[in-house]
């Protein structure tokens, strides 16, 4: 690691989850002071140790988000990087999704991204390296079965990313989204069908990718790191798909 984020302060929501945890680890290794925001410090994700200072806030609560960002301002006096990685997946068709479930997933995936970004902007505006990275999904472009509300939230995150990039680019704030395919995290484990052996499901999932493998949290962290780094100074308003080629292909039999 090369200290590319030395002296910078980063906030990562969902920072104890599968992808967020890897982002926090990479940012810490690059020299940033990292706040990992989430619901619980005690999430167990494999053997990977947590990185960064835990900050408890629920992204759906405006009071908790503003209190969390105020705590960062009080402690650090600055904020340079925001990664909106908190997320939820609900596996249902529209018909099977209750209004309560619909509102809940939008509250986390969309409103959480909105609130965290909105209340970070006053601090980001003061940074010479300001960058927001949202977590979209390839499901924001094309649909997996029985993920109707999830797909809708990710489409909204993509649109919000472009809108924020246009509004805040002139203030020196870059806004991008990463759009993963299958990442090996607890969220993906939950996506495999009930009753199917997880090793079999995983092999099947790997086989539908041109690269014959699913992504890792580290793959996500590598792209997020590049997006927030000075090397990406000219990159904003884009939806960066990272899916092992999954969305590049038409469905076909593979022998
Ligand atoms: N895993 C995949 O295959 C995949 C694919 C595409 C996109 N994504 C997206 O990547 C992001 C990270 O997902 P992941 O795979 O690491 O999932 P994960 O379930 O491991 O992590 C999600 C994190 O969000 C946190 N969270 C949920 N509700 C919250 C709330 N109200 N306030 C604060 N934190 C909350 C959880 O506690 C958890 O730490 C999500 O936005 C997800 O939609 C994941």
What report would you give on this structure?
This protein has 255 residues and is of the alpha/beta class. It has a single domain (9-183, 216-238), classed as 3-Layer(aba) Sandwich (Rossmann fold). The chain contains 7 helices and 7 strands. It has helices at residues 18-29, 62-76, 99-124, 148-168, 186-191, 198-207, 217-228, and strands spanning 9-13, 33-38, 53-56, 81-84, 131-135, 174-180, 239-242. Strands 3-2-1-4-5-6-7 form a 7-stranded parallel β-sheet, with helices on both faces. Helix 1 (18-29) crosses helix 7 (217-228). Nicotinamide-adenine-dinucleotide is lined by residues 13-14, 16-20, 38-39, 43, 58-60, 85-88, 108, 112, 135, 137, 180, 182-183, 185-188.
Radius of gyration: 18 Å
Q: Could you spell the SSE succession in H and E letters?
A: EHEEHEHEHEHHHE
Hetero groups bound? nicotinamide-adenine-dinucleotide
- What is the helix tally? 7
Strand order of the largest sheet: 3-2-1-4-5-6-7
Low-confidence stretches: none
> Could you give the distance between the termini?
40 Å
Please tally the β strands and state the result.
Answer: 7
Mean pLDDT metric = 95
- Beta strand %: 5-15%
SS-based structural class? alpha/beta
- What oligomeric state best describes the polypeptide chains here? single chain
Task: State the major sheet.
Answer: 7 strands, parallel
Helix content: 40-55%
